[in-house]
Design a protein that fits this description.
Blueprint (H helix, E strand, L loop, with lengths): L15 H14 L4 E3 L11 H15 L5 E5 L3 H14 L3 E4 L9 H13 L5 E5 L7 H8 L4 E6 L4 H17 L7 E4 L8 H6 L4 E2 L8 H13 L2 H19 L5 H12 L16 H14 L4
Parallel strand pairs: 1-2, 2-3, 3-4, 4-5, 5-6, 6-7
Helix pairs in contact: 1-2, 2-3, 3-4, 4-5, 5-6, 8-9, 9-11, 10-11
Length: 298
C-alpha cells in the first residue's frame, strides 16, 4: 500500500501539478491502494482547504485505477468535516488517524471512531499508534461497526495485536454478520517487521519505501509472499536495515527522508513543512547509496 508524499513549492505552498505526477506514478507501479493526506503526506500541516485540494487531486490522478483512501483526524468534529470533504471528493475509503494529542479512555476512543465512521458511508480503517492503544474489547467493538473494515497497527506490540485478533474472532463467532477486518502492519518501514507480523497472521502492510523505490518494495513483497526467506533476508540486511538506521539519525526522518527519496527519484515534490526539516545533505547522499545497493539485490 502506497502513502504518497504531498508536494509543495519552495515557498511551502501546494504544488498540485507535481503532486498529480507523483500520484500517477505511484498508481502505475501497482499498489493495492493509495493512502493520501496521511502521516507521510504531512496531514498535520494541511489546512482544511488544502486538504480538500490534495484529496481531490489524488482521486483525479488515480482515475479509478486504484482505490484511494484519505486520512482524517484531529478531534471528532474536525475529523467528521474532513471525512465528508473526502467523500465528496470521491475517495473509496478513510484512514482514521489517532485523535490529536489527548490520551483518552477506551470508551472515549470507541465513541470517537464510531462517530467518524457514522458520518460517512465509506469503508474506514482505524489507526492505533502513539496515544491510541486499543484494548482487545475496544477493537472488537469497533470492528462490529458495519463500515469499519480494518485496523492499522502502529504500536508494534504483537502480544496485544494477537489478543486483539482473538477478541475479533470471538466477536465474529458470536455475531457472524461481522465482516472479517483487514489487519495492517503500520510501523515505519514496515518491511523490517513484516516477518514478525506474518507470524501472527498479519499479511498486509504500509510501505513508505514504495513512494521512492516501488521496484524494491514490490520485489521484497514478492519474495515475502513466495516464502523465499533467503531473498527476504538479503533485502532486510542489504537495504531495509541500513535505511532504518539512517532514518534513526534525524528527528522527523520517517517523513522527510521519504520525501528526499521521492526527490531523488526525479519528482519535484519540494521541501517538508515546518516543524519538520529536510535531511542533511550527507544523509541524502547516504540514502542514494542505500537505494542503489537495494537495486542490485535479487
Amino acid at each position: 500500500m502506497s502513502f504518497p508524499v504531498t508536494a509543495f513549492q519552495p515557498d511551502g505552498t501546494l504544488n498540485l501539478a507535481a503532486y498529480r505526477v507523483h500520484v500517477e506514478d505511484q498508481v502505475a507501479a501497482g499498489p493495492a491502494a493509495i493512502f493520501v493526506a496521511c502521516g507521510t503526506g504531512e496531514f498535520f500541516s494541511l489546512d482544511v482547504e488544502e486538504y480538500g485540494q490534495v484529496v481531490r487531486a489524488a482521486v483525479e490522478a488515480a482515475n479509478g485505477r486504484r482505490p484511494v483512501f484519505a486520512g482524517v483526524g484531529y478531534g471528532t468534529t474536525l475529523a467528521i468535516r474532513l471525512a465528508r470533504l473526502a467523500e465528496e471528493a470521491g475517495v473509496q475509503g478513510l484512514l482514521i488517524l489517532p485523535p490529536y494529542l489527548v490520551h483518552a479512555p477506551q470508551e472515549g476512543l470507541v465513541a470517537h471512531y464510531r462517530a467518524v465512521a457514522a458520518a460517512t458511508d465509506l469503508p474506514v480503517i482505524v489507526y492505533q499508534r502513539d496515544n491510541v492503544r486499543l484494548t482487545p474489547q475496544a477493537a472488537a467493538e469497533l470492528v462490529a461497526v458495519p463500515n469499519v473494515v480494518g485496523l492499522k497497527d502502529g504500536l508494534g506490540d504483537l502480544d496485544l495485536l494477537q489478543r486483539i485478533s482473538g477478541a475479533i474472532r470471538d466477536a465474529r463467532r458470536a455475531d457472524p454478520s461481522i465482516a472479517d477486518p483487514v489487519l495492517l502492519n503500520g510501523l515505519p518501514t514496515a518491511e523490517m517487521t513484516a516477518l514478525a507480523y506474518w507470524g501472527i497472521g498479519v499479511r498486509s502492510y504500509s510501505s513508505a519505501v514504495f513512494c521512492f523505490a516501488p521496484d524494491i518494495a514490490l520485489a521484497f513483497n514478492k519474495a515475502l509472499r513466495a516464502g523465499d526467506l533467503t531473498l527476504v533476508e538479503a533485502y532486510l540486511d542489504g537495504f531495509f536495515r541500513p535505511l532504518v538506521e539512517l532514518r534513526a539519525r534525524g528527528a522527523g526522518y520517517a517523513v522527510s527522508l521519504v520525501k528526499a527519496g521521492v526527490r531523488l527519484a526525479g519528482f519535484e515534490v519540494g521541501p517538508v513543512r515546518r516543524p519538520l526539516t529536510d535531511p542533511r545533505p550527507e544523509h541524502v547522499r547516504q540514502l542514494r547509496d542505500i537505494i542503489a545497493a537495494g537495486r542490485v539485490i535479487g
